[in-house]
Design goal:
This protein has 285 residues and is of the alpha+beta class. It has one domain: Metallo-beta-lactamase, Chain A (4-Layer Sandwich), CATH 3.60.15.10. Helix content is 21%, strand content 32%. It is built from 8 helices and 17 strands. The chain has helices at 24-28, 33-36, 76-81, 91-97, 142-149, 165-170, 221-225, 237-254; strands spanning 4-7, 10-23, 47-59, 62-66, 83-85, 107-109, 122-125, 128-131, 137-141, 173-176, 180-181, 186-190, 199-205, 209-213, 257-259, 268-273, 279-283. Strands 1, 2, 3, 4, 5, 6, 9 and 10 form an 8-stranded mixed β-sheet that branches. A 7-stranded mixed β-sheet has the order 11-12-13-14-15-16-17. Strands 7-8 form a two-stranded antiparallel ribbon. The radius of gyration is 18 Å and the shape is globular. The mean pLDDT is 94.
């Protein structure tokens, strides 16, 4: 079920393209199974659930979608990697439950171009791949697009050209170079580490209320609490740690609501700091 939160004049709604099951070692990297399994117990195949979360922002008279799941285009590599289960249907089904169609989306912000975050950026229509959200502009960092267009041995099985090349061809992909104010209430900030061109999203409403959408800076809430817990997927793990260190302080100082991209147990919450300087994530009740 999606969760909707009012933030001043703005509103956010959590949406989902289903749940993907991945090896727990990928999500927690060098951290031993004896530690992370206490917090997120794996199944008999050592798989842990990762929600394919999107966030709908309604602000400044616009409907803005942040990330868009794995989509449904045929892809043999993706089919062998992504164990996706959709008892509630796809992201488009979730939008429909909120009486919205792809035509109702004005802007799509892509935190990065991995296959589980931009799959619905395009879809297959009559043997042609076209933008799924026909009225929308799509926003991504220029560095991220460059890396997606020039994959290496490590990244080639997570960047799928059919998710973003059609956006370029149709002239609907907006490339950014660093921080950018997209609307009066919505801005993007570079948060490198998971990828070099990764970005996160900040919603501010009435100048005092904040929501921070992590993308894969922190797939699970525990990643915000414990800096050394870096996923094996991060291409710049030490940079991930430094980026998180900076945003830990910012999130606590601003009492910001945080939306985690893959956490099935704590999708929304706040990061607080105790008198010993340690951070804890408090899920939204």
């Amino acid at each position: 079920m999606a969760r909707t939160v009012e933030l001043g004049e703005a509103r956010i709604t959590l949406l989902s393209d289903g749940v993907s099951y991945w090896d727990g070692g990928g999500a927690f990297g060098l951290v031993g199974r004896n530690k992370w399994a206490k917090l997120l117990p794996p199944d008999e195949n050592n798989l842990v659930p990762q929600d394919l979360r999107s966030v709908l922002i309604e602000a400044d008279g616009l409907r803005i979608l942040v990330d868009c799941g794995v989509g449904d285009k045929p892809n043999d590599v993706r089919a062998t990697q992504y164990d996706v289960r959709r008892p509630q249907g796809t992201l488009l089904d979730d939008l429909a439950r909120h009486n919205l169609s792809p035509e109702d989306i004005d802007l799509v912000i892509l935190t990065h171009l991995h296959g589980d975050h931009c799959g619905w950026a395009t879809r297959l229509v009559a043997d042609r791949v076209v933008p799924t959200f026909p009225r929308a502009r799509y926003v991504v960092q220029r560095q991220e697009l460059y890396d997606a267009m020039h994959p290496n041995e490590r990244t080639r099985n997570t960047y799928f050209a059919e998710n973003f090349v059609p956006l370029l061809e149709q002239g609907v992909l907006v490339l950014l170079d660093g921080e950018a104010q997209l609307t009066p209430s919505v801005r993007v900030v570079p948060t490198p580490g998971h990828t070099a061109g990764h970005q996160s999203v900040i919603l501010s409403s009435e100048g005092a209320l904040f929501c921070f959408l992590t993308g894969d800076l922190a797939p699970y809430a525990i990643h915000l609490e414990r800096l050394p817990w870096v996923p094996a997927y991060d291409v710049l793990p030490m940079l991930t740690i430094e980026t998180r260190r900076r945003w830990q302080v910012w999130l606590a100082q601003h009492n910001a609501l945080v939306a985690n991209s893959h956490d099935v147990l704590a999708p929304l919450g706040k990061l607080v700091r105790n008198d010993k300087g340690l951070f804890s994530f408090l899920p939204l009740s």
